[in-house]
Amino acid sequence: MIGVIGGGIAGLTAAHTAQSRGHEVGVFESDTQVGGRFAPVRTASDAVLPRQPPGLSTAGAASQALARTLGVELDAHAARTGYYHDGVVYPVDRRRELLAFPPLGLRDTSYFRSLVDDGGVPPFTVPDHTLDEPEALADVTARSFVTEHATESLYEQAIEPLLSARFGDAPDRVSASWLVNRVIRQRTGSTEVVEPRSLVDALARSIGRDRLHTDCRVTAVGTRRGAVDHLVTIEDGARTEHDVDAVIFDTPPQRLARLTGDDWGGQTAATTTVCVGLDEPLLSIDRVTVVDETPIGRLVALPGPTEEVTQIIYAIVADESADRETESQVRHGIESLFPAFDPGTIRWSAVHTETVSVPSVGYSDHIIPDDGPALSGGFYAGAASRERYADHSLDATIRTGQAVGKSVAGRSW
Ligand SMILES: Cc1cc2nc3c(=O)[nH]c(=O)nc-3n(C[C@H](O)[C@H](O)[C@H](O)COP(=O)(O)OP(=O)(O)OC[C@H]3O[C@@H](n4cnc5c(N)ncnc54)[C@H](O)[C@@H]3O)c2cc1C
């Protein structure tokens, strides 16, 4: 059997790929449901939501093709993006909207447009070769890249807030590779908001529920003569051993290091997402990056799931403490950003913390190869793999899961 540790989208895709090539698979997931970042969470009002806002993920060719293979349709719709500054949310999808965004002067507006849209005004054209190979910029900071090809003020007013919202308090260390990957995604038009739950459900159905072990944490990977031999899990408080021929890790790199004893020197950042259900909509823009100094870096709005809750807001804070204090800090943060906001419209809230690997300069030294953990029979499809380190899209996740699933299936066990 091929054991997959972690039932996020990468692990499920790898399991599905290996299984469709004739291998027996078993997915071991510590949570009560598979899906990882997009596992459904039941709120106080019984609405079922993804833990992280799908508004941050895009669907490109790989996600669409996998969805077609599985016979599901991805629920995608175009998102409106904007920046919050000094009490106002400015939409920035169209050129004339950008002109109304005060922190950017006319020159920066042109640069910004040409950064996000090929049809924009030169001279901030991202050099062609960087689009072919974003990893070549692994050692260049996003700051120096934008400053060299456009202006420092564009970086400070429009790019740095994006990086801070995503990676916390060290935005100046983030590599230009991440920015270029994002630009490429926008240019290839894969910018819809996607609800990946249909994909998670279809993958789970196709693999077969009996092969998905939920509430089942892998605590050790047993070896025999230097090769993977079994997984040790804790299931209902009981220790169980599962024989395996090979293992695919879909775990964050720091967990992989704990399981295999390898060192991993990459940088991580923690973000807390506070999700509030409102009975009156607060935002008319789907994704809002906050430029001003506040604990809230980003707000993502989704349509309400029930009649009582007409809008859900995910507020993302660069902080690792998913506690009541963060929750009340966010409530107060929303009130201070939007003085007309009535906290009485909040029907429920939920809080969740995530640790992400940061593609900071020099990240390529910390890439974990696909057949990577120094363990015979061990494979890696997690966030520190080559394809995904600086490309945080759903597509890169799916491509990696497929490549690793194929590679494992191509060997004889
Ligand atoms: C807010 C947000 C942030 C994102 N950040 C990133 C990012 O930083 N990097 C990136 O590549 N993409 C990112 N994405 C894009 C993409 O959506 C994700 O890459 C994708 O969902 C991650 O899937 P995954 O399977 O790799 O990991 P996850 O969804 O994190 O799934 C991993 C699973 O492994 C399980 N697990 C971990 N350890 C164990 C264990 N010992 N035993 C059993 N189970 C275990 C966890 O419970 C989890 O369910 C992000 C998307 C959103 C919405």
Automatic annotation (TrEMBL):
Residues 9-401 form the Amine oxidase domain. Gene3D superfamilies: 3.90.660.10, FAD/NAD(P)-binding domain, Guanine Nucleotide Dissociation Inhibitor, domain 1. It comes from Natranaeroarchaeum aerophilus. One of its GO terms (molecular function) is oxidoreductase activity. Signal peptide: none annotated. This is FAD-dependent oxidoreductase. It comes from the Archaea. InterPro entries: Amino_oxidase (IPR002937), FAD/NAD-bd_sf (IPR036188), Zeta_carotene_desat/Oxidored (IPR050464).
